[in-house]
Amino acid sequence: MGYKEFRSLNAVGFNSNQYCYIYDSFSNEILRVDPIIIDLLDDSFELSKEQTVHKYKSLYQKRSILQALVTIIEIQQVTQALLSFRIPRFSISQDGNEVGRLTQKLDNQLTQLALNVTENCNLRCEYCVYSGNYINRRRHNKSNDITLGLAKKAINFFYEHSRSSEERYLSLYGGEPFLRFDFVKEAIEYAKRIDPNINIAITSNGTLLNEAIIRFLDYNNVALTVSIDGPRDLHNNYRVFLNRTGTFDVVMSKIELIKENFPRFYSTKLKINSVVAPYKGKIEEINSFFNAPLFAFTKKPQKYSVGLVNPQNNRFFEKYDYNTYIREYFSNMFKQFVVSHIGPNNLSDITVAKALLDKQMKMLYFRSNRRLSEYKYYWPNGICIPGVRSLFVSSMGKFYPCEKLYDYDDMIIGDIKSGFDVGRVANLITEYCDRTIEDCRKCWAYRLCGECFLTIRENKSWDIIKRNEFCIGQRSMWACILTIYTTILENNSDAFEYYAGEDAMDHDIFMDTKAMSD
User: Fold this and answer.
1) Before 100, cis peptide (omega within 30)?
2) Which residues contact 160 (CB under 8 A, 6 or more apart)?
3) Who contacts 73 (Cβ-Cβ below 8 Å, separation ≥6)?
C-alpha cells in the first residue's frame, strides 16, 4: 500500500479508494486534499512560487499550482496544520528532573505485579518462547519455580510501592501456572489479605482446569485468560501435549464446563487469547470459529486478544515462512473489518479482526486535537517507566519491566532484596531518549508508534538494525490503518459511533500519552 512521507514536516500522504489524505502529526488532523497538495507540499516549504510552477508545469496548469499553494497556506493559518515542527527532546518529566519523577513513581505508583509462577508446562507449543526454537531463551524446566516465600515478599513490596495507585493488578504467568495450583491458591489468598480490592489475573493453556480450580477463581473474582488459536486443525498443529497429541478437544471441553456450571464467571471473567500461526485452511474460518455460541462472551470489549509469534532469533519463522503468512493473514482480516463496517454485516461476526484493529481505530477515533507545540514535554514513544506499569519478578527475585523482557539480563532493574535500581532505570530511559530523538523528531508516526524497550534491544545492547526494521514496519502499518479508517468513514460516517459506548477512558489507547501536558 503506497504512501508518501514528507521531508519538511511530520506528515504522510495516502490514498483511500476514493480520495487523497494527509495525516499531520503536529495537529493530529486527517485532512482530505487534492492530489496536487500532496505533490507540492514539500516544495511549498523549499521553493518559491515561480520555482514550484516551473517544476510542475508539465503535470498541472499554472492556475492549479498557484491555487494549491494558496490552499496550503490557508490550511496552515486556519487549521494550524501542516506546520514544520520538530520535537526538541524526549523527557518523562516536565521540569527535566527524571530521577525525581522516577523515584516518586517507583516508590508509590506501581500498577501491576507479575509473578513467574513456573517455567514448566504440560504442553509443548511449537511457537512458545520456552519451546527451544528461540536462541538465547531458556527451555521448559522445573528448576525455576518461584517459592511462596519469595512471592509473598514480592506482593508486600508491590503493595508498599503502590499506595498512591488507584488500582492494583496481580498477574500470574507460566509456563502453566495450574501445574502449581496449591501455590496459586496461597499466593492469591495472601494478596487478597493484603489488599482485598486487588485485581488478579491468570493466563493458562486451559487443559488442567477443573471444577475446584474454577470455583476458587470464581470465588476470588480472578480473571482467567485461556489460549485457543482457532479451529481444531489450526490449534492442534501447534498447541500439543508432551506426547504431541493436540489439545483442542480438552480445552473446548473446559470452556463448555465453565459456561454450563459457572455462568457468571463465564460472562464476566473469562477471556480468550489466540496466537496467529500459519493455517492451511481459509483464514475466514478463524473468524467463523469464534462466532460459535460457545464464545459469545468474546463479543464484549477486551474479552478476546490476538498475539503474534515472538520474532526474536526464532527458528519457527523460517520453518513456516511466517512473514509471508502474516501479510496474507492481515490483508484478509483487514478486508473483513472494512466490509463489516461499511455494510449491513454484524460486527460480532469479526471477533478476530476487531481484536486486531480496535485499539488502533480507537486511537484515531478518540485522538486529541491539541497541537504538539502546546505540550510542555514529550514522552519517548511507547516506552513505559520500567517497573511502574508492570513489575515482573523472576523465581530468583530479579526485577524486569515485563514478562516479555524476561531473559534480557541487561533489563534487570533491581531485586527483591535491594529494591529498585533507580540509577539503572534512569540510564535505560536516558539511553532510549538520546538514541531515538533524532529519528523520532522527524517521524510522522510519533503519536502512533508502539516502540518500546522490547523492540530495540537484542544481545544485551541496543540493536540499530532491529530498531530500524521496527520503525519501517510501524510506518507501513499505520499508513495501512489510516487508509482503512478513512475508507470506512467515506462509506459510513457513523461506523465508529459504537466506540462512544465503550470504555473510552482506557488511557492506553490514547496517542496523547506521548505528548504530556501536566
Assistant:
1) no
2) none
3) none
Amino acid at 348: S
Q: Report the largest interatomic distance among the alpha carbons of the chain, rounded to a whole angstrom.
A: 80
Q: For the range 487-494, what are the long-range contacts, defined as Cβ-Cβ under 8 Å and sequence gap of 24 or more?
A: 487/16, 487/17, 487/18, 487/338, 487/342, 488/338, 488/341, 488/342, 490/16, 490/17, 490/18, 490/19, 491/342, 492/341, 492/342
Within 366-455, residue ranges assigned H as helices are 422-440
Contact 153, 95 (CB under 8 A): no
CA distance 307 to 6: 32
Task: Tell if the pTM clears 0.85, that is, is over it.
Answer: yes
Give the separation between CA 49 and CA 275, rounded to whole angstroms: 54
CA distance 306 to 312: 18
Q: Mean pLDDT for each 10-residue chunk of the chain (518 residues)? A: 91 94 97 97 97 97 98 96 95 83 94 94 88 69 89 98 96 94 98 97 98 98 97 96 96 98 97 96 93 92 90 78 92 93 80 93 95 94 91 94 87 96 94 93 94 83 87 95 96 91 47 44
Alpha carbon distance, N-terminus to C-terminus of the chain: 38
Q: List 284's β-bridge partners, or say none.
A: none
Q: What is the CA radius of gyration of the chain?
A: 25
Rounded Cα–Cα distance for residues 350 and 344 (Å)? 13
Alpha carbon of 451 to those of 381, 419, 467: distances in Å? 6, 27, 9
Q: Is 169 helix (H, G, I), strand (E, B) or coil?
A: strand
